[in-house]
TrEMBL record:
Protein name from the UniProt record: RING-type domain-containing protein
InterPro entries linked to this entry: Leu-rich_rpt, LRR-containing, LRR_dom_sf, Znf_RING, Znf_RING/FYVE/PHD
High-level lineage: Eukaryota, Metazoa, Spiralia, Gnathifera, Rotifera
Source organism (scientific name): Adineta steineri
Recorded superkingdom: Eukaryota
An example molecular function term from Gene Ontology annotations: zinc ion binding
Presence of keyword Zinc-finger: yes
Zinc-finger in keyword set: yes
RING-type domain boundaries: 21-60
Keywords associated with the record: Metal-binding, Zinc, Zinc-finger
Length: 297
């Protein structure tokens, strides 16, 4: 049976039978198709196919694992992903199947979450809805009168813009922290604005790592302006994997290349930059860069 732990389907009897697996009789999850054009969930087919049972559940013809192909038709997958379900943890309804896993992994308030940080041996477990309050307490405690803290890592801690606001306020006048790691969280351009205000005041931070958040072109522009005009301490800025950063940021990158004073490394790998824009950036850097700025694309 396909794995759907954490949710149940709404109005399952009304779901088109063509969207259901013949083995588990539920909507497909990672569907595959046989040579005979019969479709099943990938996990269901793996459970069905045993050493002594290599036949199709529908037509009983012999099938081989290497002949099973994933269904990738955009229209079919799109229709399948629109099947609605209900989270059995928080009871939120009307969640599309394509968003089920994201809901469980990133937003469900009743999901048990483990919060970790690289300082104070913090290892917290509780409901996601309680994590924000814990983060607020932890941040205030970690930075309060702490002159020995050099690296603060809050990766994959569901840090949002509100938490960034508190964090930035505490770091602004904390002149001992050298590295702030906030990878894979929920930080948007709003959170970046708080960090920009912090960078105008903080005199110790040399590394700011914001990989795999929700930062867009506006956030890039704000960060570059503060680095060029108000901050001479930051050496490394990591924006890798922010999928909202696209070709429109090119003029901000050009501005950085031409006016950079202190930044030594900018990571923008796995953003939405086309190959042509990457070529232009490399060319512009070669012609106009006055420093040894390294840009990873």
């Amino acid at each position: 049976m396909a794995t759907n732990i954490g949710y149940k389907y709404e109005n399952e009897e009304s779901i088109d039978s063509n969207l259901k697996c013949a083995i588990c009789n539920e909507p497909f999850i990672d569907p595959i198709v046989t040579q005979g054009q019969h479709s099943f969930c990938s996990q269901c087919s793996n459970l069905w196919m045993k050493p002594d049972q290599l036949t199709c559940p529908i037509c009983r013809k012999t099938i081989f694992r290497h002949s099973l192909k994933p269904i990738t038709m955009i229209r079919f997958i799109s229709i399948l992903n629109q099947v609605f379900g209900k989270c059995i943890l928080c009871n939120q309804s009307h969640i599309q199947q394509g968003n089920f896993q994201d809901h469980i992994d990133k937003t469900c308030p009743k999901k048990i979450t483990i919060g970790t940080a690289s300082t104070n041996d913090c290892l917290w477990t509780g409901f996601r809805e309680e994590l924000q309050a814990h983060l607020n307490t932890f941040i205030a405690s970690a930075l309060s009168n702490n002159t020995s803290l050099k690296i603060l890592e809050l990766g994959q801690c569901n840090v949002n813009d509100s938490a960034v606001q508190l964090l930035a306020t505490n770091i602004s006048m904390h002149n001992h922290l050298e590295c702030l790691e906030l990878y894979d969280n929920w930080i948007t351009d709003i959170g970046v604005e708080y960090l920009v205000n912090m960078l105008q005041l903080n005199q110790s931070l040399s590394q700011l790592k914001l990989a795999y958040n929700k930062i867009g072109n506006q956030g890039v522009t704000m960060l570059i302006k503060v680095i060029v005009n108000h901050n001479s301490r930051l050496k490394y800025l990591n924006l890798e994997g922010n999928k909202l950063i696209d070709n429109s940021c090119i003029y901000s990158i050009f501005y950085l290349i031409k006016n950079n004073r202190a930044l030594q490394k900018l990571n923008m790998e796995n953003c939405k930059l086309s190959w042509y824009i990457k070529v232009l950036i490399k060319f512009y850097r070669k012609i106009f860069s006055l420093t040894n700025l390294e840009i990873l694309l």
